[in-house]
Amino acid sequence: MKAAIFGMLIAALGSPALASGSHAGGHGEAMAVGEPGVKAKATQTIRVTMKETDDGKMIFTPSTFKVRKGQTVRFAIQNAGELDHEFVLDQEDKIMEHKAVMEKFPDMEHDDPNAIRLAAGKSGEIIWKFTNDGTFKIACLVPGHYDAGMHGDVSVAAK
């Protein structure tokens, strides 16, 4: 099944290079945003809520984070909304590539250590080690959610 989805991605994007590193199966390349962390080494827990607002916006609370290069963080994520939402952590260009693919294949299943999709009322976590400094993005890539405001920034500063 995953091979069939990857085939559809390649067909949709025109080349496998554009899809590399974005979905299950990976391609062995390092992610600029970092790598999966070890829970026992987490030095901070950041609690994040995902939800819709009465005025039609979709938000992460908080939507901006500051961490240190080399730090392992536990993101404790709660979907307090009425719709499914995602928490995806990556470089902005990778987020935008993934967003375009999700618009074509909205029911695509993911198995990425830097992302989690949660049904309404559910919670989960991502353990992440930030290996590079810079500014990275969090986003919900369910079609329409990013455009409704569901994205934010993670600033990673050198030690």
From TrEMBL:
Q: Which residues form the Blue (type 1) copper domain?
A: 52-156
Keyword terms of this UniProt record = Copper, Metal-binding, Signal
Q: Which residues form the signal peptide?
A: 1-19
Q: Which Pfam families match?
A: Copper-bind
Q: Which domain of life is it from?
A: Bacteria
Spell out the InterPro entries in the cross-references. BlueCu_1, Cu-binding_ET, Cu_oxidase_CS, Cupredoxin
Q: Name one GO molecular function term.
A: copper ion binding
CDD domains xrefs? Cupredoxin_like_2
Name listed for the protein in its UniProt record: Copper oxidase
Q: What is the originating organism of this protein?
A: Ensifer adhaerens
Lineage runs: Bacteria, Pseudomonadati, Pseudomonadota, Alphaproteobacteria, Hyphomicrobiales
